[in-house]
Amino acid sequence: MRRIAIALGLPVVLVAVWWFASAGSTDFYRPALSRILLAFRETWFGPRLFDDALPSVGRLFAGYALALVLGVALGTAIGAIPWLRALLEPALEFLRAIPPPVLVPIIILIAGFGDLMKVIVIVSGCVWPILLNTVEGVRGVDEVLADTCRSYRITGAMRLRHFVLRAASPQIVTGARQALSIGIILMVISEMIAASQGLGFTIVQFQRGFQIPEMWSGVLLLGLLGVGLSALFQVFERRILIWYHGQRAEMREW
Amino acid sequence: MLHVEGLSKVYDGHGRRTEAIADITFSVAEFEFACVVGPSGCGKTTLLRCIAGLLAPTSGRITVSGEPVAVVFQEYGRSLFPWMRVRDNVELPLRASHMKAQRRRELVAEALESVGLSDVHNAYPWQLSGGMQQRVAIARAIAYGPRVLLMDEPFAAVDAQTRAELEDLIRSVWQRLGVTLLFITHDIDESVYLGQRVIVLSASPTRVAEIVTVDLPAERDQLTTRSDARFAELRTQVYAQIQKAKRSTP
Amino acid sequence: MSRALLGATGLLGLIAIGEAVPRLGLVPIQYAPPPSRIAAALASEAQQPRFWTAVGDTLRTWAEGLAIALVAGVVLGVVIGSVPLLRAATASTIEFLRPIPSVALIPLAALLYGATITSTRVLVVYAAFWQVLVQVLHGVADVDPVAHETARVYRLGRWARVRYLIWPTALPYALTGLRLAASVALILAITGELVIGSPGLGREIAVAQGSGVSAVPTMYAYVVVTGLIGLCANAFARMGERRILAWHPAIRREVAAA
Description:
heterotrimer, B: alpha/beta, globular, C: mainly alpha, 10 helices, 77% helix, elongated
């Protein structure tokens, strides 16, 4: 009871402060919270949900899933083959150092303005943290476990599935978490730079059209999206890494 | 059953040549329980890894007539898959050998039963004590149905009491299962208590210093065997060999 | 073959592929200029003062934002982390605010500050701040309980505890936070310039994008420059971490945070 009160206390106070401090605001740029919430309902619980918000999220998921498959597959290969790693490491270091948003204009040139471009943009940014973390994870597998696999003839697909990928999963998850926040950024940016629909586009339109409460509501929606996806991610993480967190908690007790 | 002939192993890395094993020759008969003991750093683990096929010898021949071979490692905490429950850890090698699910389940249940862990099959390895984790590793080896079982200082990292229990467990497993067992240890008492023969290694570069036949009765227990006069004689003999081996180090 | 040689081969291979693919007509050459043309464009840009102004603006936005975020993150992290009640009270709020994508602030910043360095700096600070704060909080939580009790037994004052106990433990985490923050900050600095149009490399990319096919190699050249800056930032951050922590006995674990 007390813990819930402590956890909820500050957020409630902050929202209350925002609500009352902004109540009856006449500042054009900082409308009252009540006005923003009203705009939120009017803006996002209508056709815009299906025309702008959901397609954006759909592209995000498509790009993210693609990056996950690509990053884990390439990362496993690079992590497992030393000469391949030595060959590609400097090139990968450079490619991943490029801030992903600057690739948007380039990808537009090659893939046009459609959904494909946006998905490629998301993949091009999300793949690096997943790839590099997978490489680290695969490199760092425990030798004794590797010996165990060899002596019990656990090889091929079985070794990959039950040993390599599982052993690397804490790092893969770390990479996937970083990739998720990059993915959201790129989803918004690709739409802000070049689109005729989508969340990023709509919010920039509101800003340029000085529809201030609507713009604020869009900012709020992006925030909620980020929080929601991160919560969803945590649920998956708990399930996948239950052994990892359990083992670490056990170690701390010793 | 198991023949090691003129085995040598040289590590060659970055201009430094380390001769871990100079020349080792011995054999282990079918269904025999043989212990390998030697001063620390004498390449016992290297020997085991060569026999297990995890390491290529520099020269010499190793013949293991009898499949499959199971290995129990010293680092129990690192030889069990932490993301699998106890049951799945024991089952994985069987799945890799394409055994039917029904048969797998029976073997896993039997193996866990024989090491006294039937009730924790659903736990994760890291939820168990060190001794129990090593029991899981032993159960995995048993379920695999090996004709040759290799153990690399399996009890070096558990406390004394657990260790005595595990020693008795491994003796009974060996008697019941009928496997050829090669047990590596640095503990002289353990080697005499467990084995039918003790292969004493010299310090590095390693050779076989002596092979001691343990003529103790087959039925052994911690109290009477260890207080037996013959036990004391044998351990003194092995101990003297190891001391001699240490002194003769160049 | 040695590692370095293999790595150089890989880089040359990348350049060779980049050169061959457009020349063989696999992609239109005007949209994907070969590296030789990009290099030529870069060389001619580098002779113009506006290029160096843009580089300077980007670096300034990045460094200033990072510095503000670092100071704020470390101070707040140590304060919040060492007062249990404060930590409990802010945990949920931090968990909520942290995943809010910094780009959500782009329209706000653009509206309030226009196409200025200030508006991009706001984004940089916001994005980098959380990286530092979260790492520092982990670091403070990692202080050995035995050391805590020892400090209490010897009646170390609050300041002494921060100075000799909390700070040394949290330092490696803070540096990890700085390294993560540095790369995020660069992304946001260039994004802000690109989208809002504040001065810097990002704006130059947007300008080149709007200048037709002839400016395409120039655009690529700027992209390469951002990559090189990113590379340097990573290298410096890692080097600094190693230099400062050379004495540190603790095994540094990277706390999973992004």
